[in-house]
Amino acid sequence: MRQKKSLPVYAKTKLFRIWHPNAIWGTFQTADYAAAIFQQAVRFYEMPNDTEAAVAKRMERQRYLYEGSRRYHVLLGEQALYSNVGGPGVMKSQLGRVSEADHAHRVSACR
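Now predict its structure.
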C-alpha cells in the first residue's frame, strides 16, 4: 500500500535528496533486491505477504528517473554496498544497477 501511495509524490517531486545508510535506495533497486528487502520485512513484522505487488509498484516508480526534469542527489552509506541482500547473484545485478543509475545525467552521487 505504501508503495502505491508514493507514486503521486514522486510524480510531483522535482528534486530528490536521498540518504540511505544501509540499503540501496528503492528507486535504484532491482526487482530481486526489492523482493528480498520486502521478504525481510514480511518475516520481521509478521505482516501479510504482498511482496509481488510491492515490487511492481517500486519498479513503476523507477520511470521517474527518466521522465521530466527531476534531479536526484543520492548518498548511499558504504554498508549499503556491502550488505548481502538476497545472495551473490542478486547483489551482483544490484551493484550493476547502482553503477548504471550513478551514470545517469539526472543523478549526482557522493563517491
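The CA atoms of residues 42 and 48 lie 7 Å apart.
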